[in-house]
Amino acid sequence: MHQVILSLGANYEAEKNLPEAQCSLGQILFSPIYTDAIWTEPIASKRTDLYLNQLVKAQTNLDFEALVKAIKDIEIRHGRTPEEREQGIVRIDIDVLEFDGVRHHLRDWERPYVLDLLPQL
Description:
The protein is α+β, with helices and mostly antiparallel strands. Helices cover 31% and strands 30% of the residues. It is globular. The chain starts with a strand and ends with a helix. The model has no long low-confidence stretch (mean pLDDT 95).
């Protein structure tokens, strides 16, 4: 089993899309621990919509590449498209922050919502 920390975010129908993404993640994650979901200001977005952000710490039997592919598939199944991304619409965004102790998306680790939510894990 691999240990992971993922970040979830949405700025479009977020109160619906975040729980739906959690259900989909339940197919690839074991023993998930979700933080609270908090509203945050957009960072470098074309839109001014607030984001609903959350972290999850869990285990998975997928290797890193398979996990990233599964996450991108979940985003697409939940309606994420390149066109909406260009418009700043984020139905769901899921990123691997840490995989077996190796940090990814290093700039995200400095974001206030990550720093605020990490102690809940």
